[in-house]
Amino acid sequence: MKKSIIKYIAIGVLTLGQVGCQGFLEEVNPNEMSTDSFWKNLDDADAGLITVYNAFKNNNVLAIGDENNRSDMTYPGWGRPNTANEYYLQNFNNGSNTPNNKWDALNKGIFRANQVIAAVDGLLPTYSDAASIERATIIKAQAHFFRGLFYSYLHSSFNEGNVPIYDFVPQDESEFYQPIQPAQKVKEFFRQDLEYALANLPYKWTANKDLGRVTAGAAAAVLGQSYLYENDYAKAADYFKDVIENPNYGYALAPSIGDNFTSKNEFNRESILEISYTLAFKSEINPGAEEQVSSNLNFMVSPVGGYRSVYPSCWLIMAYKKEEMDLNDERNYVIDATTGTRRLRSYSLRTSYSIALPDDLDTPYYQLTTAQATAFNNGETSYFRKYSNWDIVKNEKDIQPTQRSAVNVRVIRLADIYLMYAECLIKGGSDEAGVAQAIKYINKVRHRSALKLIGLAAGSEFPAATHDGITYNATKLMDHLMYIERPLELSLEGHATRVIDMRRWGITKQRFADLATKVYYGEHFPFKDVAGKDVTRWASVLTEGKKATYKEMTDYTQAAQNFVESAHSYWPLPNSELITNPAVNQ
Fold this sequence. Notes:
Elements: H1 9-18, H2 35-38, H3 42-56, H4 59-62, H5 64-69, E1 74-75, H6 97-123, H7 130-157, E2 163-164, E3 180-181, H8 183-200, H9 216-228, H10 233-245, E4 271-275, H11 297-301, E5 311-312, H12 314-321, E6 333-335, E7 342-344, H13 349-354, E8 355-356, H14 370-373, E9 383-384, E10 409-413, H15 414-425, H16 435-448, H17 474-490, H18 497-505, H19 508-516, E11 520-528, E12 534-544, H20 557-562, H21 565-568, H22 575-580
Antiparallel strand pairs: 1-5, 2-3, 4-10, 6-7, 8-9, 11-12
Organism: Dyadobacter jejuensis
Family: Belongs to the SusD family.
Subcellular location: Cell outer membrane
């Protein structure tokens, strides 16, 4: 059972409406409570803070499915070759559901954070003892972190960063109508919040009951991202270096990349910012209810009891399939179940923990082989393992009530910081002086998954490992980061990671055009089912190229035609805001 702050979320949403209900004839109507009647002490402030954490776990904040559908990472599910998904097709607009829902979820979190900040500001002058002042400051720092985080998401997602700013709790209707602020002002605003959080949050939380609360390291990581996103590599590197080297944080890569994707080994040393979910509370309510504390992302990715509404794009599948392993690493060898002899793994560890392939013979999938577990019908040749419960159940519907999962979402982890820091060291592909050091951090990530390392063995941190022997310059290394290391290490992770990366590198339009020229088909895969019967998964093993009588598959043909940088690089201001806020047009 997870003993974390998130287990109290379900009551957190209700707290603001229930305090004062006892002796109701003498108390204020709980449906008409004011700030004067609720925010009486730090316990109230901490209860209010729970609702801010609750806002963070709203699936619309990260919008993992459609944020990836509008990048080059996913195909929007339910079989090829046709889809009406407007994000994949790049024909969404300000009336589309995802930007409207994301906008609403982020602003709801901001409103709640503002309530906590205002409450603590009102309470602080009433305390003189150090313990209360420290507690109040840390509560406030958490609220500042989330307001800064949510505004950083608005800034990196909507209207080229130009959005309204709310740094107060509106007291009447007119105060809800705020004009659009320039992106630079928005950026300065959320960075001030994050700097406050960095200065006042603890490096670590020591009590089990606080597991899942945000830390100074998370603030440093988000600040570093914000500078990287504007190509201020020097400033970004300062924050990333602090995250990497400051011993007070104690971050380290998890022993296995798989430790970051399942319900096992959660809140491990690699995790910097993580959303906690659990099955231990509120199992009786609707899985989509706001006070729900379980996730339903398992149904988004899984074909075994789920809806598989997103699965990997063809180029990503092929890139995973082509990953070369370190032939000197024993982790890449298994004993063949049929012959009893030692052989090389079917696919790399990173590949096997990230996606499910029909011909992966070595990593179980829902307690069977991947081919036995699912049919791979309709041109589907792979599925994401991330966010699913493939390692603990036979079917996602085994978890009852259904459409629930306890798999935490790791939003930022150390491997991501290493790769962003590597980019800073080569200043985005322009600085040869940083190449050797950048390779060092990339190879830390690759070695964890027993992959062939890049560069030369001489001078390597892992000299006994297999290296590709290539002498990299900054440009070639940047290409490796853009098209191999970041997408394969971080597929389907973070906040719009791939969308933002492609946009800031200026490659989105060309990327879709290049990928639209590629053609694939599926080879048949014969295997034995659980009863030992010979069976074939037809057209299930993705192969690049063409083959007579085999059905061709392509990706991003429409995206290449439809993508317009001014219209699709960012989400537009949603029509829900345009309709309800007259000040946005001032």
